[in-house]
Specification:
Blueprint (H helix, E strand, L loop, with lengths): L3 E10 L4 E10 L2 E6 L9 E4 L4 E4 L1 E6 L16 H17 L2 E6 L5 H8 L7 E3 L4 E3 L25 E3 L3 H13 L5 E4 L18 H13 L4 E7 H10 L3 E7 L2 H10 L2 E3 L2 H10 L7 H4 L3 H4 L1 H12 L2 E2 L15 H6 L5 H15 L17 E4 L8 H4 L4 E6 L2 E4 L1
Parallel strand pairs: 1-4, 1-5, 6-7, 7-8, 9-10, 11-12, 12-13, 13-14, 14-15
Antiparallel strand pairs: 1-2, 2-3, 5-16, 16-17, 17-18
Helix pairs in contact: 3-4, 5-6
Keywords: Hydrolase
Protein name: Amidohydrolase family protein
InterPro entries: Amidohydro-rel, Metal-dep_hydrolase_composite, Metal_Hydrolase, Metallo-dep_Hydrolase, OTAase-like
């Protein structure tokens, strides 16, 4: 693999929020040197960026790369090869938007992750959980009220598996970990896309939640929990989950529990904005669309509450179907209540810490993966630079220019 040298760059240290002027050299997929007037081997590709800002590649910590439709229940009846073809397209477009790593929050499996790692498909580095775990009638049980047969074969496409009871939870978690899951996903409350539950419900008993956490911890992995209300969030945090997905209706007690358990919040504001505007057009059932209002306005309030309280944050989007194209709009929404540097930290160092890859991702320090963006403008002065993929001059992944 030939190297890459960026000359005359303003390289952002996201942790400090400061730019350093100089060159950046990458070799074998890693950052190997930074400083003024660097030299490099003859086969190194040299790009003079003429003083452009350079930031780490972005990390989206809540995606569904298999979600070609907002009707998540329909994925179960699709051919896995058809779903994979859609996923390859979705992942390629994510890379073009500057996301060099994503954490899938249910649906993707080792096949997609291996295909990306081997260069068979183009896209972000993929951290997957396999299928999310749901109780009967929970957020990943997509049967209608009159539908009784549960076809939950592990080889079928879909974002979840229905399991009830401590022993079944342990077996399902072990099975996903056997297949290489980077984390376990639990449905700990009702949701928008599921047909028979209420958003304000809690799901799984405390014993069931703890069983999943115990299995993940035993494998040196962690649990991410879908939860909206403070009641559901607080139960999940008490059970030991590492990240809360969404959390639109948290309270002050939630903030205290996040801090006590050193847990992360992954807000996904853009998906509610997109679902309200376009959800019906992209397959969201009408009954689910009517649920959106319950969480839409609360998301920014929850983010502001968490940020003010010092909760660890990661960037997430949770977009579905044709709405994936709004992935960068999350930057604009969060900037309504946060400074641009803090939003960028959530999409770099914060997300890297969440997934256990601090120092490897989300930074341009020597030794890190050479994932980076060359920008047309300063994102710390104008968050629109990150919100608009047209402002990306180059996307570099593992030391290779993949866009621009």
């Amino acid at each position: 693999m030939s190297g890459l040298l960026l000359r005359d760059a303003l390289v952002l240290d996201v942790a400090s929020g400061e730019y350093a002027e100089g060159d950046l050299r990458c070799e074998d997929g890693r950052v190997v040197e930074a400083g003024p007037r660097l030299s490099a081997p003859d086969d190194t590709r040299v790009i003079d960026v003429a003083g452009a800002r350079v930031v780490p590649g972005l990390i989206d910590a809540h995606v569904h790369v298999t979600a070609s439709s907002a009707d998540l229940g329909s994925l179960r009846s699709m051919s896995p090869s058809y779903v994979a073809a859609h996923s390859a397209r979705i992942m390629s477009e994510m890379l073009d938007r500057g996301f060099t790593t994503v954490r899938d929050a249910s649906g993707a499996d080792f096949g997609l992750a291996d295909a990306q790692a081997e260069g068979l498909i183009r896209g972000p580095r993929l951290l997957f959980c396999g299928k999310g775990l749901s109780q009967t009638g929970g957020h990943a049980d997509f049967r209608g009220r009159g539908e009784h047969l549960l076809d939950d074969h592990p080889c079928c496409a879909g974002v979840g598996r229905v399991v009830d009871g401590v022993d079944a939870i342990r077996a399902a978690a072990r099975d996903e970990l056997r297949k290489g899951a980077h984390h376990i996903k639990l449905m700990a409350s009702g949701g928008v896309a599921s047909p028979t539950d209420r958003i304000d419900s809690t799901q799984y008993s405390m014993d069931e939640l703890r069983a999943a956490v115990e299995e993940a911890t035993a494998a040196n992995r962690y649990v991410a929990a879908h939860a909206y209300t403070a009641r559901a969030v607080n139960r999940a945090l008490e059970a030991g989950v590492r990240s809360i997905e969404h959390g639109n209706l948290i309270d002050d007690t939630s903030v205290e529990l996040f801090l006590r358990h050193d847990a992360y919040l992954v807000p996904t504001l853009v998906t509610y904005w997109a679902l309200k505007e376009e959800g019906l057009a992209f397959g969201l059932p009408a009954a689910s669309w009517r649920k959106v209002d319950e969480v839409l306005e609360a998301g920014l309030v929850a983010l502001e509450r968490a940020a003010r309280g010092g909760v660890r944050l990661a960037y997430g989007t949770d977009l579905l179907g044709g709405m994936h194209r709004h992935q960068n709009h999350e930057f604009r929404l969060r900037a309504e209540v946060q400074r641009p540097i803090d939003v960028l930290r959530a999409a770099t160092v914060g997300a890297a810490e969440l997934v256990g890859m601090a120092g490897e991702l989300g930074t341009l320090a020597v030794g890190a993966h050479a994932d980076l963006l060359v920008l047309d403008g300063d994102p710390l002065a104008d968050i629109g630079v990150l919100a608009d993929p047209a402002r990306l001059r180059h996307v570099v992944q593992a030391g290779r220019v993949v866009t621009g």
